[in-house]
TrEMBL record:
The keyword Methyltransferase applies. It comes from the Bacteria. Keywords: Methyltransferase, Transferase. This is Methyltransferase. The keyword Methyltransferase applies. GO terms for molecular function: methyltransferase activity. One of its GO terms (biological process) is methylation.
Length: 70
């Protein structure tokens, strides 16, 4: 992702201890980023696929996060 990407929508993923990551909708698709990440992990074709990718990036056994649009 370059510095000129415009975020059109954003969903924040919350686990039991607070925010764990976010999904940003851009012209390129849905991009996933965990709280501690410097860069996006990838671009996905749909919100549901991005949610699954974010969940898969969490620690083994992590609960499915609550996704809230911001």
């Amino acid at each position: 992702m370059n510095d000129n990407t415009t975020v059109e929508q954003r969903w924040v993923a919350f686990g039991p201890a607070g925010a764990v990551g976010s999904i940003h909708r851009t012209a390129e698709g849905f991009q996933v980023k965990l709280v501690d990440d410097d860069d996006y992990r990838g671009s996905y074709p749909s919100l549901e696929v991005a949610k699954s990718a974010l969940h898969a990036s969490l620690a083994p056994g992590a609960e499915w996060p609550d996704f809230r649009e911001h």
